[in-house]
Amino acid sequence: MRVTATGSGTVLAxxxxxxxxxxxxxxxxxxxxxxxxxxxxxIVLMLSAITFILxxxxxxxxxxxxxxxxxxxxxxxxxxxxxxxxxxxxxxTAVMVGxxxxxxxxxxxxxxxxxxxxxxxxxxxxxxxxxxxTGRAVLGxxxxxxxxxxxxxxxxxxGLRRSDVALWLAxxxxxxxxxxxxxxxxxxxxxxxxxxxxxxxxGVVVSDCVVVPGxxxxxxxxxxxxxxxxxxxxxxxxxxxxxxxxxxxxxxNTKTELSPSSSEACIGDKEVLKxxxxxxxxxxxxxxxxxxxxxxxxxxxxxxxx
Length: 306
Prior knowledge:
about 300 residues, alpha+beta, six-stranded antiparallel sheet, about 40% helix, elongated
């Protein structure tokens, strides 16, 4: 373990110092308010004094104590109604509250001048991850393509809906993955089923996990009676990998782009295009029933797009 900063040199200390400086900086409008208050406050005090004198002199009440009481209350009322203090306190109070609330929500404001200038902003341009995003990928829309009469629907764990099968198998495959997209898939599964995304409590065993760099992940999911075979191989990744295709190249050695009019369209291509139009990545989930040892014997088919 190595200490890179202590005390006032830490990031937290610098953030606290920045907030203190922001709350202490004067906004331009505050200087204008102070100039007005420097004239307004003496005028109000003068009017309050005149009110006191007039009430003492002109009040028809014969008892002197009652005259003084009425005059004092009237003079105080003038000060309270005019309230010259609010003019000078409003801006620094607003700056202090604004910077404090912003810091609580993770937004550091450099001072009152920044807040004052913000009302004229028409366009805000943010930088990349970490400013308005959390730096953690999340699963958005998904498509479950499992057919009603599919053999895979046989022997599913209790509590697992047919409409979540692709997400479940993808979560099983990504359990050991450190890829951000894999973590997003597993987290989405945990949001539905809790910590046991593989349904190990129902006798599900995940094995033979293999990560293929640049392509995806593959594993074997076994459970008694699952798909009629008791096991299913799962792939999560790009189009070529999940369909066990060889990437074709043209004369310029560039990969063929995925398009809706492709003559060799695969299941899930249209769904992936829809997801990518929304700004999502779009990965395929395919299965092969039975734990066949020979790659030539495996018949992969897409059951979902995440």
